[in-house]
Fold Protein CbrA.
Amino acid sequence: MEHFDVAIIGLGPAGAALARQLSGKMRVIALDKKRQCGTEGFTKPCGGLLAPDAQRSFIRDGITLPVDVIANPQIFSVKTVDVAASLTRNYQRSYINIDRHAFDLWMKSLIPDDVQVYHDSLCRKVWREGDKWHVIFRADGWEQQITARYLIGADGANSLVRRHLYPQHQIRKYVAIQQWFTEQHPVPFYSCIFDNDATDCYSWSISKDGFFIFGGAYPMKDGQARFDMLKTRMEAFHFQFGKPVKSEKCTVLFPSRWKDFVCGEENAFLIGEAAGFISASSLEGISYALDSAEILKSVLLQDVVDKNKAYRKATRKLRIKLYGKILKSRALTSAFSRKWIMRSGVAHIPQAEYPESKTTTDEKDVGQMRQGICP
C-alpha cells in the first residue's frame, strides 16, 4: 500500500491550486472525477464568472489566463431584477467571463508531474487508523487503497470528507439548475434575479459564446417546478429562451451561520466549498477556493504541531469576510430592504437601448465549436 504525505480529494480550483503549490515540497496524490481532457464525463455546472478576488489570487501566483478558457463577450455590468417590485437596475461589476470546464481542466494541467493524479476516479471511503488516513478509490477500472498523513477534502458541496468528519453537521443546501439556450437577445447581458415566490436565494443569467444561460438556486424539494415558473415570469422582462440546448443540475451550499464554516480535524482539512467557503450573497466560490488553498499550503509547510488549529486561526479573516456575505445576503433576499436599496438608485448606471444586434456570428460559432477541449 503506497503512503503519501498528502491525499487531495477533488481537483476543482481549490484542490488543483493546492496540488500545484505543494508540488516538490511534499509527496502528493490527488483524485478527481473529471477526465484529463475533453467534455465527456463529469463537468461542474457553473455560470463561469471569475470575480476580482480570484483574479487577485492569480496575480499573486504570477499566472495569466490562456485565451482558450476566456469566453465571449466580456460584460461590465449586472442587470439586477426584482420580479415582484418590477424593478431593474444596472450595477458595475468586473467579472471575467470564462468557460468553466475549460478553466477547470486548465487548472489541472498546471499541476506538475511529480503529483500523482488519478483522473476520472471516484473516492469511495476514508477513515483514520493510528496516525494515518486510509483512502479507497476506484480508478483505471479497479479499486485501490492508499494511506496519507494529511487528508484534504476539496470535493465540493457533497463532500465525502466533510460528511465523514462531521456526520451530524447540517448546512442549508439548494439545487442549482441551469439551462443553455441559443442567444437571441440583441445585446448580451449578465443578470441577477430576485423572486421570493420562486426562491429565497436568487437566480441568474449569463451570455456566453453565443449561448444564453439561465439558472438559479432553488429549494431541494420542488426546484424544477420553481425554475420553470420563474422562466415564464421572466418573459415579462424581455428574457428570450426558446428550446433548451442542455440542462444541468448540482447541489450548492448556502452558509447562513458562523458554524457553517468547518475547517477539519485530526490532520484532515477542508478547503473551498467543502468547508462552506462560498459567498451567500452571490454563490461565488472560486475566490474562496483559491484563497483557502493558499492558506492551507502555508499551514502544511509550517513547522507547527497542531496544524488543524493553525489552519482555523489562519482562515479566521476569510471566515469573517464570508460571514459578512451572509449578512449582505439577508438584506438582498429580504423583499423590503431589497426594494428600498434598488429604488434609492445608489450605484445604478442607466443603460442605453440598442436595437441592433451586438452578437456576431463568429461569437456564436465559438460556443458551437468548443468541443473536446484539452489544455
